[in-house]
Design goal:
- The protein has a domain of 65 residues.
- A two-stranded antiparallel sheet has the order 1-2.
- The N and C termini lie far apart (71 Å).
- 0% of the residues are buried.
- The protein is mainly α.
- A hairpin with a 5-residue loop joins strand 1 and strand 2.
- It is built from two helices and two strands, in the order H-E-E-H.
- It comes from Burkholderia sp. (strain CCGE1003).
Length: 97
């Protein structure tokens, strides 16, 4: 199964590499206020990929921090629960009639 997964990864990598190498023609990206960026198409695509990756990482940070804090709290509670002695309760006595 691992071999199949690695084979798919290699095929996707080769496909993306061929796609990148075939799109080296210059492209111009026009911004607001008359700014323009002229670069190879693959470089523009890579820049947008990196910006999207960074945006995804930044947007997931609050959830990661919240989960780490909860994990620490639960570990403390577990440690306290393990250190607390357990009182063994005696079963109730039957009624005397």
């Amino acid at each position: 199964m691992k071999f199949i997964v690695w084979l798919i990864r290699v095929l996707v990598f080769v496909l993306l590499l061929v796609l990148a190498l075939s799109n080296t023609q210059p492209a111009t990206l026009n911004f607001l206020a008359g700014y323009a960026w002229s670069a190879p198409l693959i470089l523009i695509g890579l820049a947008f990929f990196v910006v999207g990756l960074l945006a995804g990482l930044v947007s997931s940070m609050p959830a990661v921090v919240r989960l780490r804090m909860e994990n620490g709290r639960l570990k403390r509670e577990l440690r306290v629960a393990r250190e607390t002695p357990v009182a063994v309760e005696q079963p109730p006595m039957p009624p005397l009639i």
